[in-house]
Fold this protein.
Amino acid sequence: MTRALAAAAALTLAVVTTLIVQAGGDPASALRHVYLLPVVVLALAFGGLGGALSAGATLVLYASVVLPAIERSGLTPEAIEGLVTFALVAGVGALGGTLTTRARRQRARYETILAVQRALAGVTLLEAALRSVRAVLIDRLGAADVGLVVRDGEREVAAAAERVVAGSVADRVLTGGAAVFVPDTGDGSRPRRVFATPLVVAGQPIGVLAVERVGELGGEERAAVEALGAHVAVALENARLTSRARRFAEELERQVANATRHLEELDRAKSVFVAVASHELRTPLTALQGFSEILAARSLAPEEVRRMAGIMGAEAARLGRIVSDLLDLSRLERGLAPTLHRTPVAVEAALAATANLFRRGAVDTLVVDCASALPPVDADPDALERILANLVSNAVKYSPADSEVRLCARRAGAMVEIEVLDRGAGIPDEARERIFEPYYRAPDVGTVRGTGLGLAVVKALVDAHGGTIRVESAVGAGTRVTFSLPAVS
Amino acid sequence: MWALDRPWRPGTRPLLADTPTRLLVTLAGAVAAGLLLADRIPLPPGALRVVGVAAGQGALLATALAWAGCGTRSGVVAIVVLVAAAVATTLDPAGALGYLLVPLWVAWLARSGRLAALGLAGVVPGRAVLAAVLLGVFLGGHLLVSASLTLGVRLRAGRGGLVLAALAYDVGANVLAAECFFRGALFNRAQRRWSFATGLLLATAAYVVRYLLDPLLPKSVEWVVGAAFYLTLLSAGNCWLFWWSGSLVPGGVAALLFFAAYRLLGTGA
């Protein structure tokens, strides 16, 4: 269509000139007014370039009529008519073309803004928004490339590059806050112009819009890009806020889901605990009740009475440990540390006492291995006893009947490390991370008795002493629990 | 994207950077010496023309080559060839064929990739060459018609040898030097530094002035006005062709066609 229009205009110019020349070459020929027609049409069709080229072509053609006339007869009224036509054609071509170009640019600007807003409709991720806007701007601005950078909190999101290089045009605009124009990047057979303008919202720069074009990027167009940048900034700020709100919502949703899952697990664990604790409390109570009834109803030999009294004492102690654990747990859940009465405690004696306690319970595979000249620890003796009892009890419970359980102690700087090592079933990885949580019991404990409180209490007691505790375990190979307490210097 | 991932330092190179000043001063000195000698002693016929070709066309070509980064030596080689061709032409019009060695030298430099800054590298767009042909034919045709109608100039008939010698001069010296300097060097630098319009104005003004100062141009008002008119259009068209295609070749084609038409007129040399 445009080619046909241009060809028709060129043909018209040629025909008009020929007709004027054939009619005697009168510069004041009425046909000269027809020159205006192709000039106006081309100015409206192609803007400034069309107006200038058509006016120029007209002048060149019409000059072959006007100039010979001036040469022949001087500045006659006819020749002046011709010169006026020169000026008229040039003025119409230039003015019509310029106005058309301006109107088109204005329309293109509005269309670009609309296209940007359409591109951002429904886009929730900032990265996707930048990609969409970039594609629109490359198309609309006739650019070789368009870059967009937006600051989102601490991070910089960029389209058209992985990141903004320090010292680059975009970086200078981001830090300086002023637009930058580079007339030529220096590579390529044609000039590659770059214009980068800050994206400003409420007086604060939030990013950069950079346009690269092969060819011209004049002052008027740069001003238009700057104005466009203001619209793009607002649109991208909205996209950024939407994106951030969505991210926050997703994060909140995830945290609520995690919290809900945790609460559900806690609730389930507590239910299990109630059942287990009832059973654990009932068992020693049943033993105490049964033996006390036997003692009350029968006359037994003194040795039998002592045996029963021993069993009753052990069950009472067990009952006491469970109650102590429950009390400690209650304090823990209220955010209180266990109450400690610290005093220097000889580690070797404490280990031996624990071992003897279990040996009396028919466990004869305990081995105590203390380093020589071990300093005492600054600890609560009762708390240390409970820590050791809990750990050894677990080691014995989860080990085969005749397997060895070792209690070791050694100096480690300002601390004393105590280790309980068994060759039992071991703890799976997923359970190892949670064994210090209250009520938690590994899923594969089978029929082994326990409340799920012991290790939680142990950790709380060790922490209260300023020590640390860690577990190393391999399924089928055994478990090593190591805790440290401060040595008395 | 360049604006994001390439470091950039504000500031631009001077417009006249890499100008072979010493060579240009030497050429100016040669012209001055030639003119002084011509006043005092009888010089061989054509001696001043040889000096003029070497100084005028050689200066333009050497400056263009130096601006493209080829150094001064390439320009000196071109000047030597121009001098040799000019001397040969004074002896016999067929000696003008020697001018054709200059474009061969420039082509050799371009082939080695050293004239990319002048737009003499890569593929020449066919559409641009076609547009250049149209421009050259239009301006040349218009020149022939208007010159014969307005000024009553007749075409050179039966003097094909002189026309061919003039064409060889245009190919190897006149058009080559002018396009290399005014388009490939001056316009290209100016448009990269400022804008197309500024580059066009600067290059066209310099181009027109260069031909108006040419001692071979008839100094009547009609010829001066006509030269200014056509050379302005030719320069503007060639600048646009260079800007559009990124190549110097289309502009050279248009200029050659225009000057071919000019050589057909009964004036010029």
